[in-house]
Structures are given as structure tokens and as C-alpha cells.
Structure prediction request, 255 residues.
Amino acid sequence: MRDYAAEPACRMLFLRRQLDDPEVVDGTARECGRCDRCGGAAWPAEVSSSALEAAQSALGRPGVELDPRRMWPTGMSAAGVPLSGRIPADRQAESGRALGRLSDVGWGTRLRALLDGTAPDGPVPDDVLGAVVEVLKGWEWHTRPATVVWIPSRSRPQLVQSLATRLAQVGRLTLLGPLERVRETSPGTGRSNSAQRLRAVHGAFAVPGPMVFDGAPLLLVDDRIDTGWTITEATRVLRERGAGAVLPLVLAVDG
Ligand SMILES: [Zn+2]
Prediction:
């Protein structure tokens, strides 16, 4: 987008170049004659200070809404997983929240540094916790959550456990503990599809024997969400064991 805005020549040629248009590649493409560069129209690039302030405020405000999965992927039964069609309402997660998107200019920069593959695991930093608390304050839930469960993390166990623990302290919620990992899961391979991701996590989590639920909504904490199938599977397991509404809360949305 920045390159497009700064493009000194025909903007249509710029777009066609981005799309590997063969006529650009072989040199036969011509300027469009209609864009602002071709037509000589000059549009003001100044932004009013009030618009700038509003944009900065919106970008700095933490919180991204997460829509729950509502359908199981097709073809699961062929893969030996007996899930198909619509996810029953009492097995679906509620709308969730993330602090930010990894690609955002707002909280994304901070989250990328925290979740980068080379960054060491550690307790949740105070500034990040503070921002997550702000997200919780702005969350207009039907019923306030009463308990906290977290998804055991292979890569960032301290981060996820400390986030869940401190949220429980701040919000005076009952910390129920982590789900149990009963099977190894292969890490996401980036572009794998929904059926592959669900098959990778299906049956991987169990509710620990001593964990009991009172039917109140619970916060389900994880560090990041990509395809959403880990959260969806964890929610299914929790609700089948009698948990009330499950509200996913993660630090980052991939992408
Ligand atoms: Zn043009």
C-alpha cells in the first residue's frame, strides 16, 4: 500500500506489475491514461490533525473480535473423525477476543516481538497484561465469566499459564487450570486446510478429572489463534464435560 501510494508513474501499471500481468512482463502494457498519475489530477495528501488523532487512537485501542467456528470441516468422517455439519450451539465457542493481529500496526508490533520464534518464553509482560485487561473491560458479554482455563502450550507454557493466572487474579475469577494434553499434536504447517488442522488437534485435549464446572461462562486462554481449530476442539471437549459458555481469549490473531 505504501509503495502504491508513493508510485510516481501509472498506478494501473503498478497494479498489473504486482499481479505479474504478462503484458507487463513482455513490455507491451501501456499506461492507462485514466489514473491520477496519467491524468495529472492531484489529490491532496495532507491529513487533518483530528483525523490523524482519531486513526492513532483507533489503532492503539486493544482488542479484536473473534468469530467462533460454526461448521465442522467437510470430509472429517473419511479421516476417522466423527464430526460433520453444523457444530451444535452448545458445543460452539462464544465470540472471543484477541489483543491484536500480528499484522496490525497497533499492537501487532509488540505481539510479534513477544511471539517471535526466537523470543524466549516467559511470564506475560505488564504492558501486555494491562492491555488484555482493557480488552476484557470493553467486552460486552451476556454473562460475566467466572472461571479461567488455559490451553497447555508447547512453545510458550510460562506465557500462557501466567496470562491465565494473572487474569484470574485481576478479575477475581476462579483459576481452574490447564486442559490436559493427552496426545501430541503436529504443529500447524501454515497453509494446511481446516480438515487437516482439525484432524491434527482432534482428541488431543482432555478435561482433567478433578476439574469441575458450575455452568458459569469460562475464559479459555491461549497465546495465539490461527485457523481456530484448537480453540474449537478445546471448547467441544470442555462443553461435553459440562462447562458453560466458553469465551476464547488470546493474545494474537495470526495474519
Ligand atoms: Zn495510469
